[in-house]
Every structure is written in structure tokens, then in C-alpha cells.
Design brief:
- The protein is mainly alpha-helical.
- The protein has one domain (8-112).
- It is built from 5 helices and 2 strands.
- It has a two-stranded antiparallel sheet with strand order 1-2.
- It is globular and about 40 Å long.
- The model has no long low-confidence stretch (mean pLDDT 94).
Length: 115
């Protein structure tokens, strides 16, 4: 992790709004689970990490990814990324709209998001 990387994962105001609507469907007990699923959806859709301004901290990166597997995935998919926690944060925020679309807008379940 470079000095420019973050030590936490945050959500934008819009992503938090989407998260609240997703959580109201009662498919998940923890917001972190939604965030991890959102990251997976972003990866599956070939999202590219980008700066994510205006985030409010939600989770310590070590607690969000205690095994380090998510950071490892960032390294595999984006081997030129020097700030993997920022990349994770970006992917979580990008994937939130995918999860919201399926669960809230279409009324589907999490099983419809990933094969």
C-alpha cells in the first residue's frame, strides 16, 4: 500500500442512499456484505477504478477484507494500480448502482447478480 492509499473504504452520498434502499429490502444483515457484492459486480462488469471524491468512511480496509483476498483480486485485475484500497472503494461505489438496480428497481434477489 502506497502512502497515497487510504486505510478505509468509504461511500459517496449517492452510494449511501442506494445502500439504504438495498438494506430496506432485508436481503442482507450487514452493509459490508452489500459492499463486497457491489465490488464483485463491478469487477464482473469490467469497471475501471477511478477517483471517488466525497466519500464518508464506513469500514476499515482490514476489517472489510480480513483475509486480503479482495486486495489480491484488485492486484490480479488491475496490476498497475498502486492504491488498491482506493481501487476497492471505487469499485464498491460503482457496483452499488448495479446491486440497487437488480434488488430495488427490478425487485430481484442477490442470486440474480452473479452466476
Amino acid at each position: 500500500m502506497s502512502e497515497q492509499d487510504r486505510r478505509s473504504i468509504g461511500l459517496t452520498t449517492e452510494s449511501q442512499r442506494l445502500m439504504d434502499e438495498i438494506m430496506s429490502k432485508e436481503w442482507f444483515t450487514e452493509q459490508q456484505d452489500v459492499a463486497r457484492l457491489a465490488m464483485a459486480c463491478a469487477l464482473r462488469n469490467s469497471a475501471q477504478p477511478s477517483p471517488t471524491p466525497g466519500v464518508d468512511t464506513r469500514w476499515n480496509s482490514g476489517l472489510f477484507d480480513p483475509s486480503g483476498e479482495l486486495l489480491a483480486m484488485v492486484g490480479v485485475f488491475y496490476n498497475d494500480v498502486t492504491t488498491p484500497v482506493r481501487a476497492m472503494e471505487s469499485l464498491v461505489n460503482q457496483g452499488m448502482s448495479i446491486v440497487h438496480h437488480v434488488i430495488v428497481e427490478k425487485g430481484g434477489g442477490p442470486d440474480e447478480l452473479l452466476p
